[in-house]
User: Fold DUF2225 domain-containing protein from Rossellomorea aquimaris.
Amino acid sequence: MTEVTPYYDKKIQCLACRHSYSTTKIRSRFVKVKGHESDFCPLYSSNEINPLLYNVTVCPRCGFSFTDEFSKYIVPVLKKDLEKKISRQWEPQDYGDIRTLEDAIKTYKLAAYCALIKKEKKIMVAGLYLRTAWLYRKLNQAEQERRFINLATHEYIESYLNDDFKGTAMSETKLLYLIAELLRRQDKVDEAVKYLSKVIEKQHLSTEPKIVEMARERWHEMRESYKDQKRNTPA
Assistant:
């Protein structure tokens, strides 16, 4: 009897050049989530069996990199842009096998670049940046993590201000909370409080009480931290 491994090959057709290729994915039955951090970063029981590493698929022929969230259609003028900025610079390489954290980071950066050229929704670009930050966190590279949190925050705020997130899986409550939490992680406390206030003000409209409760927890933490700073500041 053949032993079933956590990994399997998935057939993919590139959205840009239509080339067919295989890429590694993880069977969901092997994925065990222990919990989530305050910015929704999933904590898996195994560092190796981590679906985040395989979220992006990279075409080995043309370099176009994308996730399941990408829209399938590419406007002809943008396809020419992709060819000029990605495919003509691409040195054929294969990300279809088992990936390290470093490999995965490269795929997310490629996908973010492709998403910007293709003019995908800002909410999706923000998600690619945030996942890149999570992977840098796993590598304990705080400076790079902060850099990508900053990039994600900018895109999430733009998405909120322009209603770009409407019609996606991201709710307004979750988006406001996430913006606040990412600002908090950059020590931008006043801005974070502004977005947390929006979550709490609109709590009667929300169908996500858990996120409202998380917003209250962050609010309380920041208030206590502020009090501690005041107490420890010389008069």
The longest strand covers residues 7-13.
